[in-house]
Amino acid sequence: MKQTAYNIFNPLNSVCFLLLFLIFKSNAQGGFKKKYFASNGFAATARNVIECPDKSLIIIGLNKDTVNNFIIDRLTLIGTDKDGNKLWEKKYGNNYFSYINDGLRAAIYKEDNYFYHALSSRDTTDNGVLIKFDYNGDTLWQKTYRKDSIDNVYLCGLTKSVDNGFFLTGVSINNVPGMGQPCLLIKTDCNGNELWRKKIVKPSPNVQEGRSIIQDSASKKIIITGYQYPGGPNASGNMMILDSVGNLIVRKSFNNGGGGLSEITQLRDKNFITSGSYRAYGDGNYSKYQKYVVKFDISGSIIWQKLYDIISQYTGIGAVHELASEDLIMLGALDTNQQHLLPYVLKVQIFRTDKNGNVKWQKYIGSAVDYNSCEYAQSLNLTQDGGFVIATWFPWHAAPAPYSIIKIDSTGCDTLASYCKSLEVGLAKQHGFSVAFELFPNPASSSVFIRTNTTGTEPLTAVLLDISGRTLQEFPFFEGNRLLEFDTTPLSPGVYFVSLRAGSVTIGSKKLLVER
Fold it and tell me: At 299, is the pLDDT very low, low, confident or very high (cuts 50, 70, 90)?
């Protein structure tokens, strides 16, 4: 039988090929890695990045500038288009009024036309501030929460209250011996005007900080996560549940001196999840940690808690988000230099788990390859296309240090390639798999074939997912068979994902484009 060669250099074929490519690209989620150097700055920390209603992005962070011979931290916002191309830059602060870089993520609350940012500032004293921005990066108002007669005010967490005001949390710090550093809670109205504040104290040592805050709409209880010193030399994760006016109901210590709990999220089942690191080992010179996640209910009772990954000097999970499928996406970091000595190689990691915290896949993303390029993940936010945008920080980058963001799709891919072959950290090797599979034709119209030469003893299943990661259908391979076909005619045109699962472990994933 004579075979016909397909010549892409034929003009008509070239046009068809280009159209197919443009259709695929327009429907693909895709992603990117970008670095930005703020003008006149020499050390920058991107603390958060958010998507605007028009799908453009705003990076929020602090940038060290020299102003009138003073070196200060200026609040610096960089706006980009949806593909990460820089459009504008705006800075706030001067040598009489600067902002404080506490190394934590930027506390942000988004609404349709505005967003709010809580952080700390410095003039004659150290104070907390709440700023209302529009999506052009312009301030609409800024409210200051000044120190009282004893304590400076440092803010780390922000949430909207059920009465349309705000709750702010952080820590009160002073230099008076024995006074401690109590957790701070401030209540405001919708315009940021302070209504009341409370210091939440604990038995000695009276040291605890609120890093993230949320209010349960049903019970009106307030939940704060952060760190505390429970009595030893190492800080532990701290979770507090308070009534609607700030009276303490429950306080719990978690993660064995792991340095604190990070962002708190309320799930669809109305329970809560937070994360950090677990202190697995310490010999007096340095400690080693594991990633740690805990899910709990409104009474503070633990539903489950998990440890992930290898023990390392630098590791942890800073954010957890829930997908429409109830799967969880977790943002973490790991020092891959397991000698626990300089030079560190700190890499950004993405985890996907089921709703009970069981890992489906793990990937490294970003660009860290050595000490100077070490990246620390600061924030993780969902985008309208079902992907995520991440702010990262280079802690040991030579000056000038950049802002950095990474856009990924729902499979953890940070490139526009049709198939992102990201590192599946240890899972395939751990379960004895050799992973390879084909998906054809792609684009597909009426049906698609999946062919694999995967080796291993676990039963294989192909899983069809929509763009948000929700499972639509599962197709088991019959024993000994490495080829299957499924019907795509019921599917609407668009982008889907096909994952290959061996037992309960996802060992590969590819994009599928359905056309008519």
Answer: very high
**3-state DSSP assignment of residue 243:** coil
* CA 115/CA 59 separation, integer angstroms: 12
pLDDT digits (tens, 9 = 90+) for 498-508: 888 877 667 77
**Token pair recorded at residue 455:** 């080796």
pTM of the prediction?
0.78
Tell me which of 257 and 190 has the higher pLDDT. Answer: 190
* Residue 516: Cβ-neighbour burial (10 angstroms; 0-12, 13-18, 19+): exposed
* pLDDT at residue 285 tops 90: no
DSSP annotation string for 335-351: E--TT-SSSP-EEEEEE
Residues 402 and 455: their CA atoms lie apart, in Å, by 44
Distance CA 436, CA 434 (A): 7
For residue 21, give the H/E element and its range: helix 11-27
Residue with tokens 């802002």: 403
Strands 359-365 and 328-335 turn out to be: unpaired
- Reading the block at residue 8, the tokens are 């892409």
Length of the chain counted residue by residue: 516
